[in-house]
Amino acid sequence: MPHTHFDLFAAASQEMIREGFDPDFPTGTDQQLASISNRAAAVPNGDIRDLRALLWSSIDNDTSRDLDQIEVAERVAGGTRVLIGIADVDSAIAIGSPIDQHAASQTTTVYTAMRTFPMLPEVLSTDLTSLAENADRPALIVEMVVGGDGSIVAADIYRALVRNKAQLTYSAIGPWLEGRTEPGLKVTSSAELQQQLKLQDEAAAALRNQRSRLGALNFDRVEAKAAVADGQVQDIIASKKTRADELIEDFMIAANEVMARKLKNSGTTTIRRIVRSPERWPRIIELAARYGESLPLQPDSAALNAFLEKQRVADEVHYPDLSLAVIKLMGPGEYVMSRQGDAGQGHFGLAATDYTHSTAPNRRFADLVVQRLIKAVLSGQKAAYSDDELASIARNCTLEEDAARKVERVVNKRAEA
Prior knowledge:
With about 425 residues, the protein is an alpha+beta fold. The protein contains 13 helices and twelve strands. It has helices at about 10-20, 30-40, 100-105, 120-130, 170-175, 185-190, 190-215, 245-265, 280-290, 300-315, 320-330, 365-380, 385-415; strands spanning about 50, 55-60, 70-75, 80-85, 110, 115, 135-145, 150-170, 220-230, 230-240, 270-275, 335-340. The strands form four sheets. Strands 1, 2, 3, 4, 7 and 8 form a six-stranded mixed sheet that branches. A two-stranded antiparallel ribbon has the order 5-6. The chain is globular, with a radius of gyration of 22 Å. The two termini are about 20 Å apart.
């Protein structure tokens, strides 16, 4: 029988369309991009600091070009001052413009083994609004002082001009922080950068330990990913979280909490990221009982975390399977509109009362909306969205996120097969 080649690229696009996505950008996109390109080099207007001299660095995947955040830290009295720079995507995209309308309908970048379907045109997300190495970019800065016990003892948010001095990867920095390998030329050639990354790692560990004490869940999953070259699947690679992954995760969680509290304290209606108390908690109780452990009758993240940590130590090999089982029973996160005075809806998995998504505006529309809300607070202007608009955006972001997961799951399984 003749060999028939299955076109995985075409299949990925078909799956996107099947789930209601539009992989193509609308009419008017090219004209808007030309306008953005012409003014991209201009220094943003308003109260903006110049922080380009700081030793900023980013850590992301090996192939990532849509860089949303960079970090820098310094030792201060009482702890570590951590600065997180978040790409100021709003400065490039006008509300209601063709690109903004497309982003509002898609709500997320979809990553499959075969192809990435960007929420924003790549000339934006991987260039003009990306915090790329050696490029001057406007950013929103989340500044916080992390105490020795991992608590955030002071925080501020402001605009700044930044320059990423070192684009680094999880695969190189993670094993180095764990003492297993050398980190690569960029880091080995700079004692200052080495010191900087170790200080960031120390602050991140303190944040993580504090969250754990409050009951945040620390899952550990091994994910199989297809390695693709020239449109062909070459291998299946198992990826596991490293210290570098944890560093960025810990900083982003803290930044999202600071953003959420700032918006709450300002009285602004906003979008929050929540994970409700698990409705299937009795099933989680049953799961723990199989391991000889008892959990309270009512959802309790601290008790669940204690059970998970005990199992991690007892059986590290099979712990990822347990993590996955609990994640499925907890249910997915969702976006909700939150007004001043609304009953608190927190994030069960993170044991966080105030939480949003704000650190990936190149990849998630909810983050871009939150960025616009926080910039309005900083400038004393009226919010760009009504309560009804925010409620609609939150619902759509939740629905499209679920659709994106389906696309990624189906396409990645095909690639692995």
